[in-house]
Inverse folding.
């Protein structure tokens, strides 16, 4: 932990790259952990693709409404808060997340780059426009129930979740911003990701190639490819505050 805390203390530009694991401590199930996996009950190909939506829009829409409800009931945890605190220490901190929840924003982080979109930005399946204002608060679902998606008034197209599905490209401008941040940072913290979904999983490698140090924080050991990397094994809600607090709250013991 001490070595990681010293890396952060000496950095001017930091990228915080996060996956589902940072939200696990807020009670949001991850995707591939056997115990907490959302998909223990579902098959991703049945839920997170445009074809799945064409075949059964109500099931896919209900699945996302269920996830929205889960996130609405959750709170940012100590890891999200420590990331937001890090940005208050005079360092340039860019959060690049694979998560579609808003826990980084609710913890106080701004300018968050959502590589895979966001739960609260539905868009029209037909014309891809995001409706000016759409309230979904009237739509509730318990896990597994189907709910017919609302339609965009102007073109009557069904609303779909504003997320990147399997087989879809990441928005070019979003990807470009994430790559630029990774290429320009001194340190990249990779927190709670299995690193199996591309191109997002390239971000730590892009930082490494540009000479940055990379700290992986995960409940399981991360295989290292370079001497510029280190792996901290533990929960994000414990590890992230431990390496941030020496700078964010000087005098704290790591
Ligand atoms: N603290 C830190 N790491 C954790 C914690 C925790 N409390 N709990 C779980 N983890 C780790 C797991 O060991 C795993 O490596 O977080 C990782 C979660 O991996 P995934 O569930 O695969 O989530 P993620 O890497 O974000 O998935 C990437 O895949 O399904 C798509 O679009 C989806 O954005 C998602 C992408």
């Amino acid at each position: 932990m001490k070595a990681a805390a010293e890396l952060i203390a000496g950095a001017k530009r930091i990228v915080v790259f996060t996956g589902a694991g940072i939200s696990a401590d807020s009670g949001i199930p991850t995707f591939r952990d056997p115990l907490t996996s959302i998909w223990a009950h579902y098959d991703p190909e049945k839920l997170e693709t445009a074809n799945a939506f064409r075949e059964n829009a109500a099931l896919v829409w209900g699945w996302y409404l269920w996830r929205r409800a889960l996130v609405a009931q959750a709170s940012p945890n100590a890891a999200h808060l420590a990331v937001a605190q890090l940005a208050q220490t005079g360092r340039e901190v860019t959060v690049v997340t694979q998560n579609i929840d808003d826990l980084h924003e609710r913890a106080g982080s701004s300018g968050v780059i959502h590589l895979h979109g966001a739960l609260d930005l539905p868009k029209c399946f037909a014309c891809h426009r995001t409706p000016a204002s759409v309230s979904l608060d009237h739509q509730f679902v318990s896990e597994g129930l189907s709910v017919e998606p609302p339609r965009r008034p102007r073109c009557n197209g069904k609303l779909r979740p504003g997320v990147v599905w399997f087989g879809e490209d990441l928005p070019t401008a979003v990807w470009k911003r994430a790559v630029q941040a990774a290429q320009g940072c001194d340190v990249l913290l990779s927190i709670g990701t299995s690193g199996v979904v591309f191109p997002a999983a390239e971000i730590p490698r892009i930082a490494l190639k540009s000479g940055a140090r990379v700290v992986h924080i995960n409940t399981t050991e991360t295989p290292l490819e370079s001497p510029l990397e280190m792996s901290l094994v533990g929960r994000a809600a414990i590890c992230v505050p431990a390496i941030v607090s020496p700078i964010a709250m000087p005098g704290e013991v790591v």
Notes: The chain has two domains: 1-28+76-116+170-254, 31-73+119-163. Strands lie at 13-18, 92-97, 113-114, 123-124, 159-160, 187-191, 213-218, 229-233.
